[in-house]
Design a protein that fits this description.
386 residues; Rossmann fold; 14 strands; 10 helices; alpha/beta; binds NADPH dihydro-nicotinamide-adenine-dinucleotide phosphate; six-stranded parallel β-sheet; 2 domains; binds the ligand O=C1OC[C@@H](O)[C@H](O)[C@H]1O
């Protein structure tokens, strides 16, 4: 209990000795949009990374950009209709953080790459597999780093779960179930997550995590087909015809692994009254037992991994730091671990972990395959022509 409270305290207020002065060559970040996720995903983690400088933010409205810069400590703000491009054109900006709506990820990541910037790109990378491929092709041509911000993958607990499976302690994987749900009202009706043109939908938003996670856990075995999939629209209004509130899908992976994934971005109240507790679990059934993780999304707050070998006593594991001494603190968030890796990669150092281009491209491929199977169809391809 004490460890939990101390972790929560340190997550919200990192210890004073962890806040180091910035290096003279700290990576200068420019952020596109004054997005809700930016404080948690970049601003806070940057306070304990001496190699990261919050240099500029751009928003479509100058006052909004100024207020965001002032509140979060960015040195510069760009506002107005040309703000995003102005930020990219700023020669001081070295890396761009792109937390725009999904449907704008492609356009602005391509523009940032054209401008010679590395990109930390929010998930899901794009609306389509083809767009993700184009991004990584341009990045390779330019020698630039692009990372799809699946932050949870950088946390020790997630890697521990994978290591248990890879150790073969429980034998071959037979099936996996993973899902993510959010209680009704988490995303308000005007949220970008409900807008088809902006790449909305449950499979794109919470669903992209379990889809990524099951692929990681089963690797090197890959999905072969979507056996079945169904989805329910957010509302019956015409504009939500292709916007899934929830979905469920069964995928057949190589090596006879059967995988169930699901997500719900607006799970209705129980009996119309009680808010639902979010589901954040993944369960892997192997020949010789099961492994389950609770809270794969934000394990830095709290998580547990239950390992249950058949016929033997179960054990519970937790991993807030890497057992091999790799860099990190008990209270580092998934985003802080991710930022460490991103900067290492940009600086030519070996990151503790990485998401390869093929990983991102495949995630988009299987998101699209699920949408094809449940009849909701892919999100629209960007109209931006590179
Ligand atoms: N890694 C994680 O844990 C999380 C990742 N995300 C991802 O981050 C991205 C942003 O999510 P979130 O922060 O919740 O979103 P917000 O709605 O807060 O931010 C989106 C930003 O996009 C800009 N924008 C540009 N064009 C439009 C438009 N046509 N309509 C609406 N906004 C526009 C706005 O910028 P401006 O300020 O210029 O007006 C706004 O600040 C998504 O891709 C999402 O999937 C979200 C939450 C958690
Ligand atoms: O990235 C995210 O993480 C958690 C989800 O509930 C949220 O909608 C999403 O954007």
């Amino acid at each position: 209990m004490l460890a939990f409270l101390s972790r929560i305290q340190n997550i919200s207020n990192p210890p004073a000795n962890a806040i180091q002065p910035k290096e003279t060559n700290a990576l200068k970040f420019g952020c596109l949009g004054a997005a809700k996720i930016t404080p948690g995903a970049l601003v806070k983690p940057s306070t304990t990374h001496s190699g990261v400088l919050l240099y500029a933010v751009a928003a479509r409205d100058q006052a909004r950009a100024d207020a965001f810069a002032h509140k979060h400590g960015f040195q510069k703000s760009y506002g107005g209709t040309t703000a995003y491009q102005d930020l990219i054109d700023d020669p001081e900006v070295e890396a761009v953080y792109n937390p725009l709506p999904n449907g704008l990820h492609f356009e602005w990541t391509m523009k940032a790459l054209k401008g010679g910037k590395h990109v930390l790109l929010e998930k899901p990378a794009t609306n389509t597999e083809d767009e993700a491929r184009q991004i990584f092709s341009l990045a390779a041509q330019k020698g630039l780093v692009v990372l799809e911000a699946f932050h949870f993958r950088f946390h020790p607990s997630i890697q521990r779960m994978k290591a248990i499976l890879d150790s073969n302690e429980l034998g071959a994987i037979k099936s996996i179930t993973a899902g993510l749900t959010a209680p009704q009202g988490t995303a308000q009706p005007d949220d970008i997550r409900w807008m088809y043109e902006l790449g909305g939908g449950s499979t794109m938003d919470p669903g992209s995590y379990p889809i990524n996670f099951v692929r990681y856990l089963a690797a090197p075995h890959k999905p072969k087909t979507v056996v079945s999939a169904s989805a329910v629209p957010y509302t019956s209004a015409p504009q939500h015809k292709q916007v899934d509130r929830k979905f469920t899908a069964t995928l057949d992976f190589e090596h006879d692994i059967l995988v169930d994934v699901f997500a719900d971005l607006d799970e209705p109240r129980f009996l119309g009254m009680l808010p639902r507790i979010p589901k954040l679990k993944a369960t892997v059934r192997c020949e010789g037992g099961t492994v389950e993780i609770f809270n794969f999304l934000i394990p830095h707050f709290y998580h547990y991994i239950t390992v249950s070998p058949t016929g033997k006593t179960s054990r519970v594991e937790k991993a807030y730091r890497f057992a091999d001494g790799s860099k990190g603190e008990e209270w580092w968030t998934t985003y802080r671990y991710q930022l460490e890796a991103f900067v290492d990669k940009v600086r030519g150092r070996e990151p503790q972990t990485w998401l390869d281009p093929e990983d991102t491209i495949d995630n988009m491929k299987w998101i699209e395959a699920i949408y094809a199977k449940d009849g909701f169809g892919s999100r629209p391809h960007s109209e931006y022509v590179p």
